Each structure stands twice: as structure tokens, then as C-alpha cells.
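hey so i finally got around to running both of the ones u sent me last week. sorry it took forever, my laptop kept dying halfway thru and i had to restart like 3 times lol. anyway pasting them below in the order u listed, first the sequence line then the C-alpha cell line for each. didnt double check formatting much so if smth looks off just lmk and ill redo it

first one:
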Amino acid sequence: MRLQLALNVKNLDHAIAFYSEMFATPVHKQRDGYANFEISQPPLKLVLFEHPNPSENLNHIGVECLTMDEFDQASTRLTKSDLATSDIAQTGCCHAKQDKFWATEPDGLSWEWYRILDDGPKGETKNTDPSQAGCCGQQQDQASNSYQVCCA
């Protein structure tokens, strides 16, 4: 597993240059208004979303499970303890196909738990079914945040 930190940045090119230098790691994936890094030390998935005037820098926090076994163990453990706040759903977000669910902490911060199934899907599909744990900000019973978008 590795933590995922998704940030809103004002200028994607400047942020890519900064984080590439800071973590001595090249960008892993880049799309219009989006980039991510797979940083080995410290183990971190850093995701950048370009928003010229974000209301805050933090977009969301997540945990990427690197194996199906990690994902299954986490979902079983969090479901049994009633910490999971959504069902597992397979989503076709704009940047990857993934299984995911959400856990929301007592003060309302939602954590995305996910496993990437296909890092470069063809076309751009979105899961907009509000009854499933869809793309970021599309959690069941949660209002969508315009700054929270797909994250893989």
C-alpha cells in the first residue's frame, strides 16, 4: 500500500517541475489539467489537479492498494468495523479503471481506498451512478465537490 495525496495546484507545469525536483521522480502520468507521480521514497502517490482558483489546496486523501489481496483485506476489515461508508464499486474514471470504496472519519474527511485495474483505459468514461462509490466526490450520500475529480 501507499498513501495518495491529491492536491489542487494553480499552475500544473510549475507544480510538476517543483515536485519532480523535490522527490527526484519524473511524472508518471500527465493529462490536460492532471498529473500524478509514483514516488518510491517515501511511498506516495502524489496527484495534482490544475485549478486556477481552488478554495483549498487539499483535493482528497486516499490509499492505493497495490495488490488485490491488500484491497480485499482492507475492504473486509473496514466493512466489518463499520468504517467503510460506501460499497465497493468498479469505476471507469477519466484517468484509470479501478475498484474503490470510501471511509469517512469522524470529522467528515473522506478517504478513498482503491486498486487500479487498468492505468491507461481507452476513451474517457465516468461512473455517474450516485448509488455506487464512483469517482472522487461521487460517494454515496455525499454531495459532489467540484474540485474532487478522478484520481488514479
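and the second one:
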Amino acid sequence: MMSTISLRLPESLHKTARKLAEQENISINQLITLALAEKIAALMTEDYLSERAERGDRAKFEAAMAKVADVEPDEADRL
């Protein structure tokens, strides 16, 4: 199911969106839909990570890290 919205854009933003859509060989509707989907995903990811962080437990983290072997990393894993 699709919905229709009426959207007012500043002329400069509309012009840029139209140009980008042409470069990508997609419609301006597709470009705006993709841009909105990306923004929603980013905001939802931020909320998800914040919720996960609130459930975190420093003592459990440190206990898990204490189980990690104290060895030098392989050459390919070094920063």
C-alpha cells in the first residue's frame, strides 16, 4: 500500500534533489523515499543502541573481558 503526501521544499533543495535523481537514473520520488528510509533507519539505530546501553552492566563487561587471553594480536589484527 502506498500513501501520497504533499511536500513543500525550498527551491534549492528541490533543484538539488532533481539533479541527484537524474544522476542516479531514478525518479525524484524514489530519491526522497530512499533518503527518508535511510534517515529513519539511522534514528531507529540510535534509539536501539541507547536502549541497549541502558541495559549494560559494567561488572558483567569486566568479567567477560577478564576471560580474554592476554596475548599479542596477530600481525594482521594490529592497528
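quick thing i noticed on the 2nd:
The helical segments are 11-23, 28-54, 58-66.
anyway thats it, ttyl
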